[in-house]
Input
Amino acid sequence: MRRDRLRTVLFLLVGVGSIVIALALYLAPRWKPVKEAFASTTVLEDKSVDARFEIRGKRKPPPDLVVVGIDDATFQDLQQRWPFRRSYHARVIDRLRRDGAKLIVFDVQFTEPQGNTTQDIKDDNALLLACRKAGRCVMASTEFNDAGQAAVFGGPPGQKFARTVVGNGNVINDADGVVRRIYYRQQGIKPLGVVAYERLTGNKVTEGDLGGKTSYVDYAGPGGTIKRVSYSHVCPGCGRNSQGKRVKIPQAPPGFFKDKIVLVGPTAPTLQDIHETPYDPVMPGAEYQANVLQTARDGFPLRDSPTWLDILLIVLLGLVAPLASIRLRLWGIAVAVAVGLVYAVVAELAFDAGTVLSFTYPIGALLLSSVGSLGVHYVTEAFERQRVRDTFTRFVPESVVGDVLEQADGARLGGVGRYATVMFSDLRGFTSFAERLEPDQVIRVLNRYLTAMVDSAIIPNRGTLVDYMGDGIMAVFGAPIEMPDHADRALAAARAKLQELERFNDWIRAEYGFERTFRMGIGLNSGEVMSGNVGSEHRLAYTAIGDTTNTAARLEGMTKGTDYMLFMAESTKAALSSAPDDLAFVGEYEIRGRIEKLSIWSLEPARKPQDEQSFASVARGPTLADK
Output
């Protein structure tokens, strides 16, 4: 239980630590002193927004939005250098006015006069007059004075004469250079697309409409999604060939721009009015402003989720892996992966519905806690396996401990059914001998005997030590690790025990002058056993139980009062790979707890003159003496 509590605490600490880290990364960019240091995390979050745009895909563009692009075809048709003469722009405005365009937006800056010549002045005036006739023009500027005034058309008087309003043509780039958001005001002026919306509808946009100082641009798709027409196809009489002579350029059909919102601006990459967006690294400025205008028309539909919701998501996802791992162990990581996939789907669905959920930070908390939980699992597993190794090293040879661990479930090796050979052995006469010695001497002698029996007989033959019972020993061969030659190994261990007994007797005589020779009783029986660790969480013991074990114990007891120190059941003899030459048949005898008689075998070297109690005291039926 204590190990489980410690494991639970470690998992919870991983969850809390992951949440704290994710929250710190989430909140840090809002704190100006460290904003730059955590810019990379905001970039990841922004990239997740780009991915959501990509997954959502291109949408059908508004049918009444048109971009008149100053593109490469325009330069070929007009054979003019940029900037074009303003009389050309006047012709474009006149054409759009005649077609009945609802709004004309120029993403071209006219803050300086075209020139000082008479023709330049005429061209400037032509543009002002064209705007005045249209009565629905919006111009762009990137420069404003402290009063928020632009020098377009010479300043406010010229703008008033031209019935024109001016919008801010600047954009804001995120840390990675991508334009994802629009601002409410810069230099006191709203963005060009927002001013165009206000001019179109007569509705004023407030900061609350954006949901704050900035809002997402709800792009319809990559560059080219909104319908484009070449500038030269809207400029009648502007065509020239390479010699400068007028040529006829195909024009858009009459009435094509009726009830359309038209944005005029550069689209040719050489003019460098391009921006990187979630969909496109080279979106022209005019199309960007068209997307801004449409975003305003749609009511700025994309909004960040509230901070409290983001924090809640970070906490919830940060706890998934630790809590799942407490109950499900490694399957808890699979649960975390599944939750991450589900959250990705939820984030995309929420995006489609207009809510931009935080993605990087909740998923980051999930990832951190998953890695931490995996680490806790493997660390605790390593400690547990070492503990189990230390436990099983007492039972089995070091060489098979690894095999045992592969079959173990934590510290438990439960319910393993094996066909094995069980061995019981006991040292005869040790109790009366021990009464003559001091306690420390008794323990010394007993340890000497047990060490010899285990280290020189059981362990070398890959037996599993099950238990010590005073001077008695229980071992099993073929469990928990299956061994096809378990009977041969058990018999070899019995022979080794008899040899070690002789050495032990020699040591006793030399050490304590004890003339009496100790005898031993060994019982071997083969059959099905159930082996595994049993006990409480605080104390476990390996054991092998079943009728096979009970019979082996009784065979060991039956050696008392006989000429034999080893009794081996017929089942063990049958399991031997080959019968040894010194095998001796003892007889068939009844065994307590069994209905049928049991054939008992022994080895000739295991026969010694008896000097202890009669065999009849432990075996029912005819004794060996009667035999």
Observations:
- The first strand starts at residue 65 and ends at 70.
- The radius of gyration is 47 Å.
- The CA atoms of residues 115 and 121 lie 7 Å apart.
- Confidence is low (pLDDT under 50) at residues 609-627.
